[in-house]
Amino acid sequence: MDVSRLSTATILPDTFQGARDIDITAQIGLIWQQAKAPLIVPLLKLSLAVCLAMSIMLFLERVYMGIVIVFVKLFGQKPEKRYKWEPFRDDVELGHSAFPMVLVQIPMYNEKEVYQLSIGAACGLSWPSDRIIIQVLDDSTDPAIKDLVEVECQRWVSKGINIKYEIRDNRNGYKAGALREGMKHSYVKMCDYVAIFDADFQPEPDFLWRTIPFLAHNPEIALVQARWKFVNANECLMTRMQEMSLDYHFTVEQEVGSSTYAFFGFNGTAGVWRISALNEAGGWKDRTTVEDMDLAVRATLKGWKFVYVSDLKVKNELPSSLKAFRYQQHRWSCGPANLFRKMAMEIIRNKKVSLWKKFYVIYSFFFVRKIVGHIVTFVFYCVVLPATVLVPEVEVPKWGAVYIPSIITLLNAVGTPRSFHLLIFWILFENVMSLHRTKATFIGLLEAGKVNEWIVTEKLGDALKTKLGTKAPRKPRFKVGGRLHLLELGVGAYLFFCGCYDITFDGKNRYFIYLFLQSIAFFIVGVGYVGTFVPNS
């Protein structure tokens, strides 16, 4: 058969025969019309139904936590009342031997800007000097920084502080590997509890006095977690957005978990563990990028309880560059999804915890907050909702497009009332970041290439103090990023096109304001511009 003699009639449907001489735009339009009814509309309706179902799940979770937190604030008792809590006092006969032995671990990796702050704060903790050991776990690869950290440790040794400078010849397991190696030293066997602080955390002197009594007087408690206090929240608009998200986590999520099920995710720092509970749970594992959450889940499956102390705050630093924040969010989104994949069946088969607690851990803690929350934010608000502009046959109910997201947003804002006027910026910022969180979530669920990627969050420390201490006028400043981000640019172009279609061709003008604003947010991130505008408080 002579293929060259085949007419276009055997290749293109009859509908397109009259379109051979029409320009490519018209042909694409014809193909779109042909595919829309049998393929696009049913697919979009299915996607919309799934997104609405996930939105309802997230909505119910937020409402549930909102109701619980109201009851906790109005009628609940503080942790010091729910559990036995008595301050330690000097015993004339026993002396300091009445105090438990405490290990303080500070994992580090090339922390040139903050090592002095964290070591100084740890050495300033108020506790009998013969009942505390400071352990600096330095994984730095820069010899100059290693020397600086070692000299700083020696300086505190000369002041009578029991501080150990520990290094290893590899970075296997990253932070989890460093903490695991630190627990192997012989002097750790003398310790009852271990407090952990990341390199940018600065606990107040009374930190141990307020946390250790929970562990000493309540043998069922494994972990006492403090809240984070952000020293650079006012640095720029991006840090204000982060503060809003994290304040909700600490104000609502951690408090609800502690008050109802005595379980929440360990934040990896600013907490104190009972060493026997840590060991019983299997110690530190580096199978995911959330070794802290991994340990917390394993400990709760052994029957241990956790306590969150919301009024105990530890100063720390938020990522102030978009690059650092993106890496952090990848780790925080990929890790939980990957841990859920690894532990779901283990949680279901566990015999030591109640059915309701299992349901809470699997459904609320993991599935809704760590998976559904990320996916629905991006897929619904940045893909499906804009697509309905192009396919008017698919209608989004007003409760799904307006009421539910509005209520969820308002409930999220309760953690940081001072930033309520920045709510629109927060929505746009969170939707942009949901692209990375969704991608990272699927990487974790599927155990794809970057599932165990660990990049330490950049910290500024003293440089940040100098920056914040300057009296320069507050003006918008922009810096061009190192490379274009094609995913953001692509999503931004898609949203912009949908907005133009909504206002020009469709004529319904349903979402064009949102679509234009959201496309601008994606473009700003996509071209690598980082705005450091400092908003008024």
Helices and strands, with pairings:
Blueprint: H1 24-75, H2 79-82, E1 102-108, H3 115-123, E2 132-138, H4 143-157, E3 163-167, H5 174-182, E4 193-196, H6 207-217, E5 221-230, H7 237-260, E6 271-274, H8 275-280, H9 291-301, E7 305-316, H10 322-349, H11 355-390, H12 398-412, H13 423-446, H14 462-469, E8 478-480, H15 486-506, H16 512-526, E9 529-531
Parallel strand pairs: 1-2, 1-4, 2-3, 5-7
Antiparallel strand pairs: 4-6, 5-6, 8-9
Helix pairs in contact: 1-7, 1-11, 1-12, 3-4, 9-10, 10-11, 10-13, 11-13, 11-15, 13-16, 15-16
Tell me about this structure:
The chain is of the alpha/beta class and 537 residues long. It has a domain at 79-320: Alpha-Beta Complex (Spore Coat Polysaccharide Biosynthesis Protein SpsA, Chain A). 54% of the residues lie in helices and 10% in strands. It has 16 helices and nine strands. The protein has helices spanning 24-75, 79-82, 115-123, 143-157, 174-182, 207-217, 237-260, 275-280, 291-301, 322-349, 355-390, 398-412, 423-446, 462-469, 486-506, 512-526, and strands spanning 102-108, 132-138, 163-167, 193-196, 221-230, 271-274, 305-316, 478-480, 529-531. 40% of the residues are buried.
